[in-house]
TrEMBL record:
InterPro entries: EF-G-like_DII, EFG_II, EFG_III/V, EFG_V-like, EFL1, P-loop_NTPase, Ribosomal_Su5_D2-typ_SF, Ribsml_uS5_D2-typ_fold_subgr. This is Elongation factor-like 1. One of its GO terms (molecular function) is GTP binding. It comes from Canna indica (Indian-shot). GO terms for biological process: cytosolic ribosome assembly. GO terms for cellular component: cytosol; ribonucleoprotein complex. CDD domains: aeEF2_snRNP_like_IV, eEF2_snRNP_like_C, EF2, EF2_II, EF2_snRNP_III. It holds the Pfam family EFL1. Residues 7-189 form the Tr-type G domain. The keyword Cell division does not apply. The lineage of its organism: Eukaryota, Viridiplantae, Streptophyta, Embryophyta, Tracheophyta. The keyword Transit peptide does not apply. Keywords: GTP-binding, Hydrolase, Nucleotide-binding, Ribosome biogenesis.
Amino acid sequence: MGDPSCRKIRNICILAHVDHGKTTLADHLIAACGGGVLHPKLAGRLRYLDSLDEEQRRAITMKSSSITLHYKDYNVNLIDSPGHIDFCSEVSTAARLSDGALVLVDAVEGVHIQTHAVLRQAWVEKLTPCLVLNKIDRLITELKLSPMEAYIRLQRIVHEVNAIVSAYKSEKYLSDVDSLIAGASGDADEELVEVEDDEEDMFQPHKGNVAFACAFDGWGFCISHFAEIYASKFGASVTALLKGLWGPRYYHTKKRMIVGKKGIEGVSKDPQPMFVQYVLKPLWQVYEAALEPDGDRRMLDKVISTFNLSVPQRELQNKDPKLVLQAVMSRWLPLSDTILSMVVNCMPDPISAQSTRISRLLPKRELVVEDASLDSDVFSEAEYVRKCVETCDSSAHVPCVAFVSKMFAVPFKMLPQKGSNGELLNNQPAGEAEESDDCFLAFARIFSGILHSGQKVFVLSAVYDPLKGESMQRHVQEAQLQSLYTMMGQYLVPVSSASAGDVVAIQGLGQYILKSATLSSTKNCWPFSSMMFQVAPTLRVAIEPSNPADMGALVKGLRLLNRADPFVEITVSSRGEQVLAAAGEVHLERCIKDLKERFAKVSLEVSPPLVSFKETIEGEGISLLDNLKAFSYCTDYVEKATPNGRCVIRVQVMKLPHTLTKVLEECYDVLEDIFEGQSKKRDGNLGSHIAKDDGELVAGVRKRIIDAIESELEFVSKKIDKDRIERCRRMWFSFLERIWSLGPSQVGPNILLIPDSKAGSVPSCSQGQRGMLIRGSCDVSKRLGFSSSVGLQTDSSVTSLEEPTEEADSLCLEAEALKSSIVSGFQFATAAGPLCDEPMWGLAFLVEPYIFQDDSDASNQSDQYGALSGQVMTAVKEACRTAMLQNKPRLVEAMYFCELNTPTEYLGAMYGVLGKMRARVLKEEMQEGSSLFTVHAYVPVAESFGFSDELRKRTSGGASALLVLSHWEEQPEDPFFVPKTEEEIEEFGDGSSVLPNIARKLMNSVRRRKGLHVEEKVVQHATKQRTLARKV
């Protein structure tokens, strides 16, 4: 099964918040074990894996880079990843190809928002993490902490990181318990849940998975290093010392025993834990001896002689004390040995890791088909391939499976000219050379079998299904690999083959893969599950060439950029603009620079950011219940008739609870899968092997919707009586049983409801005929399992109010055909609201369409007004938009969660910038033991552009900020506000002195950008010009 050489491989990535020392740490590992590509004196300064000019200029990592290290007899594939939130997609690509993660935390700054994100990423991808507390030297040199204060700080950081991981475990535990209650798991699963719930903290220094380091100075240690030093001195076992050197453990000098806090009481006035006394104090003494003007240099000599260190005399005599300190510390506690020994001992090899990660990489499928004869062979082969991936089988005869996490561009001149055996390589295929000067390589890991250069493989997209046969042909392509390379940072080393567990770069897949894909030597293979991205690309700009003749070059450049960047999105707007979506300002700047200098090579014009908004109506809490009552009794509605008078549309609108809107938004992808599956089942093409998974998805969504409504009712239950709450609950569940459609795009956060069986007053046409109600079908309610009990009431398409006749029958057929037009009108309305053509958000529409008998002039009217279906579609759209306008419309804007760190002296300047950006401060706290303040705030996306630059300018670079997309928030201001009442006129005046309306300004800016009509006066309160003097 697994090749023994596979046991000697470790695939790891480095994850951390920005500027916590990832690339510096990687430099020291490369200098020690990289085969001489980096001199130790340049480690930490060269930033070897930051090969882009922009990375060196900004001093941040922007892409994930891989390098192979040789430590003892182990091969360690190290992947460095960015820490900036704008490049979090690169973290996802690095995590997918790794088995373990080094999570770095700055000992001064502590846990930040991106630390949470990378821990979440490691948990989702089932990586084995190790914790590195970096920049320990800053506790001594900057904060001037005592060893005891430093210990308390380090202990708090370890505890905080453990709390984050425990929260993720609790999520899994609760979901497992839910599945047990639902009867989805057996006794074995119950046993597993109990074990995981009782498991101890993830990171514990005595387990060897916590390291303390100073990457810049090149030293680090685990407590096992000091346990071995003190074992002979104390006459204790290494195991006992490992447990004693962390936590409230003290050494009783008289009894020569390790005791707890009670055992040391009365012995010493100021007892200090063993970690402080025997680990931190010696470090503090060495630093003081080297850096203090009156330091005792004999302390350094003692360390050198005690541990038999070979430090050149010229380094000890250096006039710079910092260099002397580095020379001693890097030899006493070498960073590379500490980190790589922890990697080898604590992180799994590919064989062990893939058996743990298989449920994430290739989720188990089940074949539940009555006539399984045709698919059984394909299914069994696909399961055999999955078993090979699970065991990391590297035999020559097993299917080869690899996963490409991203494509990256390399200039053709950087490709090796000779192969692994010295033969000349032809590295410039005609197709790619004509299109670009860059070659696209696939960043991949092999999960089973052996991959050879020149081998033919199948490229499978994420939606490929081997059981669907011919219908899946467009999702699979056959490709021939050109060359394989081992990555050494920006340099490539050609290899003829690579086996399971290896991380390689593959040439020859540029025209087959856009972002990511699964490679397999057989078609009968499940594709790997999609990667999880922390944020979505929200910053959009329109791009056009300065010279219109360069439009072709721009389109070609955008196509290449889309392939080279795993997170960028390229679309064409309805007005024909080329729209580029990026994760943030830094990401956007890099994309524009790449377009200008590498891919398009033309001068560009970039529009101001295209900010997305949503539209809703006013209402929250108790007011929602009032709206619910009005909604149920048809007290107020908008009525629109088709131009030919044959249809009348009545529409009511109500705001959904915020919790329900949030659930519908979060379940967007799941609902898309559910409804796509439903459409395919109608065509008879959906394989029944996903029926079980589909049922679980439906049950999960249904539970979340019910929980959202219950939580909203619980929130308002304190203010109103129980009878009213119970009536509201019954009313909400009756609505859930009457959902006709969701919108926009069939899966959005807006609901279309069919009318209740008890119809209200029925409109009449001019000839006195009574209308026939077109009652829709509650398709969404049935699909989500809400309408099982009401199907008899709602299945009929129309409600006739007259005796059945031949004319009535034909009217029923016509009404049936109009159902799709009503749904389309609702989709159009929710996709473009009345304020500024932005999507609607969190609204429920009750549509009552009535149809009348055709009259004698119908043929003339049809020619005059067009098809009836189009008229109905337009009438529904206009009625929905008008209903929204009549119910206090509001604009909804996206909000960033902002985490800021600033010294005390710049706190006022930072608040000035936040006030200018309409930010709402959530909390402010001072970091213990430092002069830094951490401030959390919400900043509107529309105001955030240029925020980082303005902050740096106002605080002289002292403050830093990190923005993460958080949520959507309703603007409380009315965009159409005009003072009318006496109180309003008294407060705001007659209109001349009204304060700027933020909602109106935002709405007008979007309307102006889209070319819509804007109601504004060029001159508002002009006065007649007076001439003071006349010169004749």
